[in-house]
């Protein structure tokens, strides 16, 4: 698909993805509007978020049609962020615990 | 220039194995990415931007986990009083739809650019920029409303003080990206309109589009983690 004149795809594809993004955004707003709570809320938020992000990157940003060299160079490095998120979540939990012990009621 | 007939391996062996050879091995004319250099560089810039935004969001996660005060309920903080009732998060929802709409018009602009339809490309980019500007306008309204209600980077009347610092930092940095994107779009659109890219080709529209879609992409994550969570 990547010709000398760049990425050319049928207009209808963009319009379909556009409509899909609208629907998904409505769903994520409804998660708040219908007041889902707890794990149900977090699961729905994450699902709709990744679906939207995936559609934007793969179709609108044309990643689906790029060569493997570019796809891996761009999409693999952010995986390291999972390590940062994991460490900071653990650290945050530890900070809360010590704050509760030293500053909480009866501390 | 006559040595260019040699294969890469032969060329590498032919250069001396010292610092000069080291430099020429790394600098030799090998191409990894079969895309225009501007597109590769835009992707690498966006990768670095991904790390910056992720650091902000991770920092936000960390302070939200570690604070012992209750976190303000975004659904209520960002509610608007419309038609005689409080509608939760409505302004943020409208901003989300505006940004997605602008992503759609940008995708169409890229398409018309490659079809060499200068007029439609420039107009669609202009519409994209207008949507972007209205997004920034709404964000300014939102900031004003929150500041009037007493939200500061160091305190707020709703709960944990970290709420204000995360909010201004994350949405401020994103809003700055949108503002820069609007300027970028206007510059490229006016050049498209004048026919500046007739000989160069219209990859620049796709590159501008990458930046714009990225701004929309970041908003998807901010919407999910800051406003909905």
Biggest sheet descriptor of chain B: 2 strands, antiparallel
Question: Helical region count of chain A?
Answer: 4
Number of strands of chain A: 0
End-to-end separation of chain A in angstroms reads 65 Å
**Termini separation of chain B (Å)?**
61 Å
Helix content of chain A: over 70%
Q: What is the total domain count of chain A?
A: 2
Taken from the alpha-carbon principal axes, the silhouette of chain A is flat
Rg of chain A is 21 Å
Shape label of chain B? flat
Task: Report the helical percentage of chain B.
Answer: over 70%
What proportion strand of chain B? under 5%
CATH topology title of chain B: Four Helix Bundle (Hemerythrin (Met), subunit A)
Biggest sheet architecture of chain A: none
Contiguous runs where pLDDT drops below 50 for at least 5 residues of chain B:
1-6
- SSE order of chain A in H/E notation? HHHH
Query: CATH H-level name of chain B... which superfamily?
Result: Cytochrome c oxidase, subunit III, four-helix bundle
Order of the strands making up the biggest sheet of chain B: 1-2
Oligomer class: heterodimer
Give the low-pLDDT segments of chain A.
none
Mean pLDDT of chain B: 90
What report would you give on this structure?
The complex is a heterodimer of chains A (107) and B (229). With 107 residues, chain A is an all-alpha fold. In chain A, 72% of the residues lie in helices and 0% in strands. In chain A, α1 (11-33) packs antiparallel against α2 (38-60). With 229 residues, chain B is mainly α. In chain B, a hairpin with a 2-residue loop joins β1 (80-82) and β2 (85-87). In chain B, α3 runs parallel beside α8, α5 (90-114) runs antiparallel to α6 and α6 (118-148) runs antiparallel to α7. The longest helix of chain B is centred in the last third of the chain and has 32 residues, at 162-193. Chain B is flat, with a radius of gyration of 24 Å. Chain B starts with 7 loop residues before the first helix and ends with a helix. Residues 1-6 of chain B have low confidence and may be disordered. The chains are: A mainly alpha (107), B mainly alpha (229). At the A-B interface, α1, α2, α3 and α4 of A face α3, α5 and α8 of B.
